[in-house]
Each structure stands twice: as structure tokens, then as C-alpha cells.
Amino acid sequence: MTWLVSVFVFWAAAFWLNRQLAKPPVDQQRWARIAVPVIFGITILVVWEGLVRGLNVSPIILPPPTAIAAKFAASTDILWKDFVQTVIKGALSGYLIGCAAAFVTAILVDRSLFLQRGLLPIGNFVAALPIVGIAPILVKWYGFGWESKSAVVVVMVFFPVLINTVQGLRDTTAMQRDLMQTYAASYWQSLFKLRLPAAMPFIFNGLKIGTTLALIGAIVAEYFGSPIYGMGFRIQSEAGRLSLDMVWAEIAVAALSGSVFYGLVALMEKLVTFWHPSQRS
Question: Which region, left, alpha or beta, applies to residue 225 given φ > 0 means left and ψ of -120 to 50 means alpha?
């Protein structure tokens, strides 16, 4: 009962503090915008810890955050190997290949009416295919190594980036295009000086979508065959052994990796599209 009362008191205090930080003019301060999600996240962990211990929940069902943190600290070598195998080799390599291929294909689609009418409908169809249907096929084709996971990621990120890039290249007005024609600009001059800069918000939207798809694809692909390491393999094997603290430690690594990956792309977007209204303070 003491644990539950302490949890309620802490939650009420954190709720009141966040309410104060969210009120103007404090909410306009940079430190306040950072403090609100940090306090919210700490509150979730404290409430999680208190409820699990106060209600005597079995660690097989839901381990407390302290147990997960202890397992994380004791298994950094295993977690690092899994991170390299899944994120660096599988997700990142597939993401770079898929995004580069999608960008080149988008230029070809923009130049060809045939590809616009033929490839894009197929792209929408393939993008709707479930990963659990694609992954086992590609694992059989490319083997149990990281190459098959990279192939799954390529398929997952290719079409979202392609569709967003093609849509972005069309995001110019008739007056802007006519102005480039009056300057006798070639296709490539118009592309690099007008249409590609205008498409950057769309391109980065596809790239940000791809960051989450890449990590999900690499992890899920490992369920259908992988070496004796990798985040998907570890989650599957440890869940079978009812070692939920290790499963949550892997989930924490995946969440942190995905957040950093997304944040780096968002930072790059801010540097490249500083002129766009969405990036202006």
C-alpha cells in the first residue's frame, strides 16, 4: 500500500508541475519545452515501478524498470553485438540503399510518363504488402545473414521515399515553371534550382517515415532466420525462455536507436529546409 500511495503522490506532483510548465508564457521557453516530455517520461517509469512492486506483479508478466536497467547494464556486450547486427548492418545499410534507389527512380519516373502510370500504382500495391509475407521470402533468397535483413529494409523504405519524392517534384506552381522556361532553363537546371529544393520537405517526410520502417523491418526479418545474435533473434529466444527483462532491454535499445535515427534525419531536414515555413521559429 505504501508503494501505491507514493506513486499517486508522485504522479499528482508531476502532473501539477507539467501543467504549470505548459502555461504561457513559460511554455515559450526552450527549457520548458524540454522539461515537459522529460518529466512525463520519468513519471511513466516511476508509476510503472510503483505499480509493479505495489501490486506484486510477477517479473514474468512485467518486470520493473529497475530490473530492466540492471539487466541492461549487465548485458551491454550482448546488446552491442545485437545492435551492430540489426541496426548498423541490417537497418542502416538497407535504409541507405533503399533511399538512394528510390531517389534515382523518382527522377526517372519524373522524366517518363510511362513510369508514372505504370510504376506508381505498383508501388502503392507493394507498399501495402505485409512485412510478414515479404520477410520469409527474402530470407530464403539471401540467407540468414544481415544481407536478407537489408533486403527487407530496402523493400520497406523504397516506395514511401519514392512516392514522397515524386509528389514533391510536382509541388511547383505553373508560374514558377513558366518563369524557368522564360529563362531558357533546361530540365536539369529547372530540377536542381527549382523543383528539387521545393521537393525537399516531401523527400524528408519520406526519409523520416523510412527510419521507423527500417528498424521494424530489420527486427521482424530476424524472426524468420538469423545468426545467433541480433535484436529480433534475441527478443524471440529470450521471450521463449520467459526472460522478459532481457526482452525489454532489447526493446529499450530499439527505441533509443529509432529515436536517435529519426532525430538525426529531422536535424538534417532543419539544416537543409531552413527556408521552409515549417522550420521558421
Answer: left
pLDDT in tens, 4-48: 788 888 888 888 888 888 778 777 777 778 888 888 888 888 888
The secondary structure of the chain, three-state, reads: CHHHHHHHHHHHHHHHHHHHHCCCCHHHCHHHHHHHHHHHHHHHHHHHHHHHHHCCCCCCCCCCHHHHHHHHHHCHHHHHHHHHHHHHHHHHHHHHHHHHHHHHHHHHHHHCHHHHHHHHHHHHHHHCCCHHHHHHHHHHHHCCCHHHHHHHHHHHHHHHHHHHHHHHHCCCCHHHHHHHHHCCCCHHHHHHHHHHHHHHHHHHHHHHHHHHHHHHHHHHHHHHCCCCCCHHHHHHHHHHCCCHHHHHHHHHHHHHHHHHHHHHHHHHHHHHCCCCHHHCC
Share of the chain above pLDDT 90, in %: 21
Instruction: pLDDT band for 251, please (50, 70, 90 cuts).
Output: very high
Q: How far apart are CA 18 and CA 51, in angstroms?
A: 21
Mean pLDDT across the stretch 239-262?
Answer: 90
Which residue did the predictor score with more confidence, 278 or 249?
249
The x, y and z cell numbers of residue 53, run together, are 512492486
Contact between 123 and 162 (Cβ < 8 Å): yes
State pLDDT tens for residues 79-116: 999 999 999 988 999 999 999 999 999 888 888 777 77
The phi-psi region of residue 280 (left if phi > 0; otherwise alpha if psi is between -120 and 50; otherwise beta) is: beta
Provide the whole-model pTM.
Answer: 0.84
CATH class of the domain defined by 74-279: mainly alpha
Whether residue 168 contacts residue 161, with contact meaning beta carbons closer than 8 Å, is answered with: no
Going by C-alpha positions, the residue among 98, 94, 41 that lies closest to residue 256 is 41
